[in-house]
Amino acid sequence: MPGEASSPGIMLLAYHLPNRLLGLSKQNLSLMSRTAMSLQSFGSTIRRRFLESEALRGFGLLSPTLLAMVFGLAMPLLILFTLSFWLQDYVDFIKTFSWKNYSDFFAKPIYGMILIKSIKISGVVTLATVLLAYPMAYFIAFRVQKNKLVWLILITVPFWTSYLLRVFAWKVMLGYNGVVNSGLKSIGLISEPLEFLLYNPFAVTITLAHAWAAFAILPIYVSLEKIDRSLLEAARDLGENAFMSFVRVTLPLSMPGVIAASLLVFIPTVGDYVTPSLVGGPSGIMIGNIIQSMFGKAFNWPLGAAISVMSMLTVTAMICLFLWGTHRFRRKIA
Amino acid sequence: MSDAIISFQGVSKHFGSVKAVENASFDIQRGEFFSLLGPSGCGKTTLLRMVAGFEIPSAGEIMIDGQPMSATPPNHRPVNMVFQNYAIFPHLDVRNNIAFGMRKAGLTRTELDKRIDEALELIKLPGYGKRGADELSGGQRQRVALARALIKQPKVLLLDEPLGALDKKLREQMQIELRQLQQQIGITFLFVTHDQEEALTLSDQIAVMSEGEVMEIASPGQLYESPGSRFVADFIGSMNFFEGEISASTDSAVTVQTPVLGEVKVTGSDAGVSTGQQVWVAIRPEKMQPVFSDPGESVNTAGGTMGVSAYLGDRSHFYVHLPQREDPVLVALQNLERSMTHLHKPSQPVWLQWASDAVVVLPRD
Amino acid sequence: MNTNRPWWRPDGFAVYAVIYLTFIYLPVLFLPLFSFNKSKYIAFPLKGFTFKWYEKMINSPDMLEALMNSIKVGLTVAILSTMLGLLAAKAVTRYRLPGRGPVMGFIMVPLVIPEIILAISLLILITQVGIPLSLWTVGFSHMLLCTPFAMLVLISRMEGFDRSLEEAALDLGENAWMTFWRVTFPIVLPGIVASLLLTFTISFDEFVLSFFLTSTDPTLPIYIWSSLRFPTKLPPVLALGASIFVISFFVVAFAEWFRRRGVKTDGTSGL
What's the CATH code, domain B238-363? Predict the structure, then answer.
């Protein structure tokens, strides 16, 4: 590589070049032309390096996104973690290391219980959403011949309504003078409205399962659509019936979609607090409500941070468990 | 060295620990149809992409028309490429595909239109200018890719297995057209292929590559008739190999002692061998003449029995079992007469004869 | 497969599909119904047809301001996150990057942590640094959430088209920038449109992040949240919801028309 060995010297020369231009002499002139030549080859070395290094160009393109993510994601999470070891003192923080928030979290069983309840509710919501979505996705992928996109749009149309209004709609459905009660009353099944429909974990579950339906259907649909149809024919050809070729071929191959759908539903619903506060009532409170209150009315940010950290750890552990479980399941049935 | 348009000077390319190209040094002359031939993964495409500028050599330098190219990005190199899948821009019609590279040519609209019409004429697709990319057949896409590159008047046209995606008939037709086109416009073609027949048909010079190294560079005739190594002899066409030892050698002829064929006289071989050396005796299937009655004691003759045979239309292949040799010998015979009755008699005795200048002697380690 | 079925023996899957669609449509369809109901209480029985909530909607400056705030934030976020997503998608699909997996994983993190945690950690950082809360902080938080979505959409579009098209443009003498404009951009355009729509929608509907990071300027979801507590403010909100629904229907119809045009000219992808 030409010019590489002497490059620091050339850079120095390049730095001093303007000074030398002031006192042009014969000697300087020849030095200049030599310098210009070496500079040219130095430039070509840099250029060659840049062309050669895909990584350099790639990370150049990535840098704005990465920068935004470092400032908006890595740093805040780091500060959240730090804050969870501080203490609240009216409007200020006591910035000395302390385990107190974590010991509070474990000492008062309410936090742990609500966290477990949140995970239970989200787990049921995820299971229900995925189980309900799978046949629908299967129908679009395998039974619909043309205009699949129309079906997909049909699925997503209800979700153009504001999330808050969609949640509110279930208040209308399940409320005292709501759709279900009015309907049952008008056909004479009940005389007084049922009061147990709203403001409980069941209302939270059905509302969330409805609100996140599209997030489950789309990934499952994509993974089903990708399956090479000749694989299914091969399974039939090798002697499996329709059901068993579904179990041994279609289902394992669609697992990536099922896993993506499960995560896409589970993670956001664990932390949701809109739904529980609108339709959950006191018994339907979830961990999101606790965190929100720590940053609102209860005004204990460090404790809120500690609860957040604990929630994240638990959710991560659950996800790892889930991924490990599905991995084993997949190996077993295939 | 007189008029090299491309000069590879110790060019290597490593991807991590994979050595895609290892120390390639050779020249391509102006106006040549030059092919890089080798099995897939031999580094021929990497070498081509280094000329185009999509890969930068890990070591060495590529000169195009006397200029070093390592620091020149692809868009400033005086070469153009026909891609393996043609890379026809899907959002542009045929005219705009062909005009793509002419934005900075400084032509007026009418001049450019004229050039495009000429290009369409050249590739025999006049009137196709308004077609969309998805309305073209494989052969038409290939022609558009050619026109798009040639309108730039490159110093070298690079072709990356451009005929690979076409069916056999069309491929043969395009081979002839490509060769005519190259002779008509006189631009150097650098052609990558894994199809040895295609390389033999088209090329002035062929570089045979294997595992990143250039094994041999020669004209098609030379490669076929007097290959320089066992690899090349084996890769190009079919070849029967026999172990042997040089028993006598003069300037014009050598004698090889072989366990299977007995004494073999060789003339016109320039392998530069000396007495006592271990060698391969290599004979092409079509250069062995089958005889069905005992020729008696004669030079360059071996007797055996007929094995399985295959009828290929223009010629027949059959396998002859020789004593003291496990693998049968492949013999090819032109089907000059309509009935080739001898093929239907397996196990009959047969004698093979060959001319002394049909034999290639290659060194053996 | 199911085309020759007699009507009295329908495909089980088709029946299921209809039931499922009913489940996802039914609750949502009651909302526009109540936007035409004379009573200000969202409850049965219905009290008669009226347009007054739509009149109220037009004469509600607070709500319209919230709507404008949401549109402003949504447009800014859509453009910025699509640009970031495009750069990132190009980097990961076009270059051999060391550590590609971890880098992509890092950018995807906003998708896999509960939003409320993203919201409070940003709130802590912003208050600690001392930046005042405003629509800008809301927009920044939306951008973090939207960028991974934009990147995913654009990666799938980028992977769908042949890298040699860009090489061909370079080979024909264009520099990197012009190659982008003349080849990459037109081919990726349907993906860019999809990304803009998706990120705008996410931002427009985002409540949790906005709730924590806004000060006095509400976005539409925040306005809706506050009116959910005051039943009398609700019917005009339902009217607005119904209006937005109809408008987005036309936007999506337009996008689909545009996409079909894209499919026709590139001839490679499609459903």
Answer: 2.40.50.100
DSSP label of C2 = -
For chain C, the domains span: 54-266
From first to last of its 271 residues, chain C has per-residue pLDDT tens of 445 566 666 678 889 999 999 999 888 888 888 888 887 777 777 788 888 888 888 888 888 999 999 999 999 999 999 999 999 998 888 887 888 888 888 998 888 888 999 999 999 999 888 889 899 999 999 999 999 999 998 998 888 778 889 999 999 999 888 998 999 889 888 889 889 988 998 999 999 999 999 888 899 999 999 888 887 788 888 888 888 888 878 877 787 777 666 554 444 333 3
Sign of CA dihedral C247, C252, C253, C259: positive
Radius of gyration of chain C measured on its C-alpha atoms:
23
Phi-psi region of B209 (alpha: psi -120 to 50; beta: other; left: phi over 0): beta
* CA–CA distance, B67 with B81 (Å, rounded to integer): 19
Q: Cite the DSSP H helix spans in chain B.
A: 44-52, 94-99, 109-122, 138-150, 168-185, 196-202, 220-225, 230-235
Q: Which chains share 3+ C-beta pairs under 8 angstroms with A?
A: B, C
A142 touches A224 (CB < 8 A): yes
Q: Residue length, chain B?
A: 365
Query: Which residues on neighbouring strands pair with residue B255, listed in sequence order?
Result: B248, B265
B127-161: buried (b, 16+ CB within 10 Å) or exposed (e) per residue?
ebbebbbeebebbbbbbbbbbbbbbbebbbbbbbb
Choose from A51, A52, A59, A61 for mutation: most chain C CBs within 10 A.
A61
The alpha carbons of chain A give a radius of gyration, in whole angstroms, of 31
CB within 8 Å: B71 and A52: no
Contact C225 A312 (CB under 8 A): no
Strand partners, B156: B79, B188
Instruction: Inform me whether the C-beta atom of residue A4 falls under 8 Å from chain B C-beta atoms.
Output: no
C220's CB contacts (< 8 A; 6+ apart) are A162, C63, C66, C67, C69, C70, C204, C240
- The pair phi, psi for residue A280, each rounded to 5°, is -85, -30
Cis amide bond preceding B323, omega within 30? no
Q: How many residues does chain C have?
A: 271
Q: Could you tell me which chain A residue has the CA closest to the CA of C25?
A: A158
Q: Looking at the domain A100-333, which fold is it?
A: MetI-like fold (1.10.3720)
Q: Which of A138, A151, A168 best tests the C interface by mutation, with the highest count of C CBs <10 A?
A: A168
Q: What topology does CATH give the domain C54-266?
A: MetI-like fold (1.10.3720)
Cβ count within 10 A of residue C158: 20
Q: Which of B84, B100, B133 sits opposite C169 (nearest CB)?
A: B100
Task: Looking at the structure, give the CATH architecture of the domain made up of residues B4-233.
Answer: 3-Layer(aba) Sandwich (3.40)
Structure tokens at B167: 């069916």
User: Which strands sit side by side in the sheet containing B67-68, from one edge to the other?
Assistant: B18-29, B4-15, B59-64, B67-68
Q: Hey, which bits of chain C come out as E strands?
A: none
Q: Is the ipTM beyond the 0.95 threshold?
A: no
> Which of A167, A312, A104, A142 is CA-nearest to residue A224?
A142
